[in-house]
Design goal:
By secondary structure, this protein is of the alpha+beta class. The protein contains two helices and two strands, in the order ββαα.
Length: 73
């Protein structure tokens, strides 16, 4: 079950990239980051995609650790 929304944001010049997603949509966001990086019309780079995808994965790990920490034995 989702515990609310997650947000990623990136500002590059006049462009603003804001991604809102729930825990179940994390894989879709990772796919979207790759699609944005492939788009030559955007200033969004593969480096940007790598940095943001690392934040998504780090958030998933953090939530999993918290869930396990507070789970009943």
């Amino acid at each position: 079950m989702s515990q609310g929304l997650n947000m990623l944001a990136l500002v590059k010049g006049i462009e603003r990239y804001v991604f809102l997603y729930d825990d179940e949509s994390a894989q879709a966001i990772l796919t979207m980051l790759g699609k944005f990086a492939k788009n030559p019309d955007l200033s969004f780079t593969w480096y940007d995609a790598a940095v943001l995808s690392q934040k998504v994965r780090k958030g998933k790990r953090k939530k999993a650790l918290l869930k396990n920490r507070f789970a009943s034995p």
